[in-house]
Amino acid sequence: MTVTSRRAVLPRPLPRKLLAAAAPFALLATALLAPAWRTAAAPDDAPDPPLPVIAPAASNWMPKFPFPYDANRKDVTDADVNAEREMCQWFKADYRELIRQIDRLGFNLDEANNNWTVGQVQAQADAVAANIDRSEDFLALRAQALTQSKDFASDTHFNIYEGEAFYRLWTHLSNVGVGIRGHNTSWVFGPSVERVKHWGSQIHRSHVCD
Prior knowledge:
The protein has 210 residues and is an all-alpha fold. The protein has one domain. The chain contains eight helices and two strands, in the order αααααββααα. The longest helix is centred in the middle third of the chain and has 34 residues. The chain is elongated.
């Protein structure tokens, strides 16, 4: 394609009169789409309460074996099944609330210009860190109990479906907790939180806990 032909397919700029008429609507749309936390952020609010204690219970939950995990069925142990069953109970009870608390802390910290001493920010951070610790304590033994195997290329994989997602969620959640306790703002807003959300979203979308 020549330079001339490439230019020919570019969209033409809108007329100035049309742009002027659309400007108020663009401003209104921007205001409507502005993050809700900008008006809801509250560094002076009381800290979040402790998450409820998860008491693992028997259930009729069973692991799923979509391709290619159907080939691993014989390698999935009772320990794998019990570990993922109990992590699913935590996920369904506490995951969304924990993410809400982490996001709320981040929003309030942003509103406080990253000053951990403003209002109740430090108390909020302590409460969120304690809830992360509680979740970590619950997930740690179960995530570590998942069977990991080597394939023909010597790559490590988890025998049970979405075992890796739970394992990665646990490890990155640990990083978020360390970041909060260390006043490392980039670990409240940054890659560790996004990875926790990524693996949590994968667990949710896979329906492994249904």
